[in-house]
Amino acid sequence: MSRIRNIISATICTALLLASAACGTTNDSAHGAQDGTLTVTASINQWGTLAKELGGDLVKVDSIINSTNTEAHDYEPTTADVKRLCTATVAIVNGADYDSWALKAATNGNGTIVNAAQAGGKKDGDNPHVWFSAKVRTKTADAITAAYRKAMPDKADEFTKLNRDWHARETELEERIAKTKEATKGMSYGATESVARYLADDLGMVDRTPTGYTRAVANDSEPTPGDITQFVKMLKTKQIAMLILNPQEANDMTKQLTDTAKQADVPVVDISEQMPDEYDSLLDWMSALVNAIGHTS
User: Fold this and answer.
1) Partners of 189 in the beta sheet?
2) Displacement of CA 125 from its chain's centroid (Å)
3) 123 with 38: CB under 8 angstroms?
4) Distance (Å, rounded) from C-alpha 24 to C-alpha 203?
5) Phi-psi region for residue 60, left (φ > 0), alpha (ψ -120 to 50) or beta?
6) Distance, CA of 254 to CA of 251 (rounded, Å)
7) Would you place residue 21 in the very low, low, confident or very high pLDDT band (cuts 50, 70, 90)?
8) What is the rounded distance in angstroms from the CA atom of residue 266 to the CA atom of residue 219?
9) Cα-flanking dihedrals φ and ψ of residue 41, to 5°?
């Protein structure tokens, strides 16, 4: 695994070097597009869709990763990807060491960088799947709006209105979370990966995933047979009341866990790492997940 990561790191560095000259020869990113819109590039579509909602017709948003078939952690950016990030008026990265390739690229440009994790008070080493957190979503939305107002001050009032409209929708979601929490508070769950930890926390749920299993997956290593046995036993005895599966990382091990859960009548909820294609906005996706969890509680 370390050798693979070294190869990926070398590829990223090469892409950065190849694109650095292009980033340094344009000032378009500092002044927005000539057609009166701001050029915005996000590393992942979760933040890209949010950026579009907050900018409306005043922005042109481009997301590097748009598919559940792509792993953001180990993504190898092309030279074109790097150029898109470093020539953007506003570059939006996830942070928390989730997309370091994107942060490096954006840092080489002249635009404003919005780091979602940083905006929400998270740091490297924290769970990086911060879009599942209501607090991080709201802080990131405000940071994006501030970047838009800075880049296009004559449209500040329009950006403020779009921000206010978005906050109204986020408030509706948080009210739904609070209502669902009446049923999910204290409910135990296990997770094949800790992608939805922040959402589960917002719902008052309790993570009962075996510690050894969680540690192994977080370190990109294989859980021990003992970790798997413990996980299976907890599902069979219903010490875990819900299993959360990341379908992007399905394998023989996770199949064993999901099969065990189904045999024990423990509900399984699929929560992918990247936003699925059928959703047009981050809030729509979050609402669907809250409904799915609520219906199985």
Assistant:
1) 207
2) 15
3) no
4) 46
5) beta
6) 5
7) low
8) 27
9) -125, 130
Global pTM value? 0.90
Residue 263 tokens, joined: 């045999």
56 conformational bin, left if phi > 0, alpha if psi -120 to 50, beta if neither: left
Residue 17 has pLDDT above 70, yes or no: no
Query: Tell me, what's the pLDDT at 22?
Result: 53
Read off the tokens for 261: 């859960």
